[in-house]
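Suppose you are handed a protein chain with no further information: no name, no annotation, nothing but its sequence. What can you learn? This example shows the usual starting point.
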Amino acid sequence: MKILVIKQTSLGDVLHATAALSAIREAHPSAHLTVLTSTAAQELLTHNPKIDELIIFDRYGVKRDWWRRPGWTIEQFMQTLRAVRLNEYDLALDLQGSWKTVIFLWGARARRRLVKGHWWFAERFSQPAVHAITEMAGVLELANIPLGAGKMEVEVAPQVQTAVDRILKGLLRPGSKLAVFSPVTRWPTKNWPIENFLSLAERLSDDWFILFTGSAEDRTFLEMSTGTLSSEKGSCLAGRLSLPEFIEVIGRADLVLTGDSLTMHLAVAKARPLIALFGPTDETRVGPLASGEVIRANVACERCYLRTRCHRRCIEKITVQQVLDVIEHGIKELSAGEVVA
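A reasonable first move is to predict its three-dimensional structure. Written in structure tokens, the prediction is:
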């Protein structure tokens, strides 16, 4: 049996889809499982033991350059479509359902096509108001595949583990607890003020060591912001870790504090104690399903999904004391990768 799964949007969404991949593999242990994803998400899936083959589409390159390089853009689509059509699939599932993905579902040589959304040429399931993983489970059920104990899963190579051993050995004192703070998300409205992260770092007991993490674009801002943090208390590694190294660091954390972001989903996948700070997005649709702690301000938040400016500024109303109370009183116990149903 040959199965094609298509998922190529944001890294957090692709990580969500690994729960579906686990369920597919459990239902069809001998199937050849091919996954079509984006270049940005490739490192999330490279070492996933459930996957037999990866097909890579430069989704963000196309999104960025289509108007400057129309010929190259067409070739990217055609090259990926040719790779998809090399095999004939018994089942093809599009767990994203955007036009950039359904073009490959439509072009696939598949006996059955399943899609998230309302596309006319495939069997379809759409319930956008439910959690993203639950909606993907609805697509799987069309093929009589139960999500069951499907869990998010992400692995790295042994050499990455060795590299992180060296990094942390040079930073942490013996017996220290590691807290990973990721203050910056892709939306300004999802960012808790950096001053609050720093205040919390100073109020944590001395047995905590805080690593501030972020992308290369965040590096200057975070290094300047954390400049007053003593080397005994913490360090900033923003822009200094590869994605696999960052995944491994999350897997070593005794606490992860972040907004609605890839960091949040990685903490769940790696079964690490998590505090997720929510503002404009809906935790019932994208948050941790059964583990970690979600904190909201005690205000009438509209879950407005505004990316750059929110007049209520809900996330800024979360207090340092609210977060400190959760840390001191314990975080809801995690199970590996989080059981979803």
